[in-house]
Amino acid sequence: xxKVDIFGVKIDNVTMDSALERxxxxxxxxxxxxxxxxxxxxxxxxxxxxxxxxxxxNSADMTTPDGIGVVKAAAILGTPLPxxxxxxxLTCRVIEYLNENKMSLFILGGKPGxxxxxxxxxxxxxxxxxxxxxxDGYFKEDDPIVMKVATSAPDYLMICLGAPKQEKFIAAYKDxxxxxxxIGAGGSADVFAGTMARAPEFFIKHNLEWLYRIVKAKRIKRxxxxxxxxxxxxxxxxxxxxxx
Length: 244
Ligand code: UDP
Hints:
The protein is built from twelve helices and eight strands. The chain is of the alpha/beta class. Strands 4-3-8-7-5-6 form a six-stranded parallel beta sheet, with helices on both faces.
């Protein structure tokens, strides 16, 4: 099965390696405007209630499961996904590839200074990575930003505006941004800049990053959607059985 359906959101049945292969093949082509979204349970819950947002997610060239909740839901619905392919982890692998091939990255998003620091840190670690440009994510008008990105013609564009803003921005401007591949990458710029630490190894290894994030960021309200998501998955399984 190519895609797995979770409440109408179609997730690509990819591993980290096959997702990276797909990105690498897009980067080798002249065509521009490929899009990647990485829905987690919170995004899927939002799409469940908003059919326009669902359509928007489904229009991506690739949609990967960001979060163990999505992988577990797929299994419960009888259409297992091989593994979690998070936006941050995929982006780390893509950046290694960009470095090996002397390709370029544009980072858009985060508070002023975050994208610049992220780019400086990445450049130290990956000397052959080309920084096409950076911009913070608190701009008032879209057009000058779209123009700035387009002029730099990046190979890979990380858009870190938080969901659903970043997905809507990508959908609106994908044909104008002049990037080969673009991804909605949430808080990734913060992590590369060091302004937001990733969960300790223990949590990542045991698939408990979500728990760490809840406790650390006190995001109790937002995290309630995780439980609502789990409840909806079980209800769906009971009422409708497994996915066909
Ligand atoms: N952000 C931004 N512009 C905005 C709103 C948010 O650049 O108008 C940035 C914010 O600074 C953070 C990133 O979006 O760096 C991700 O935010 P959040 O952690 O809320 O998103 P998530 O990844 O959890 O969806």
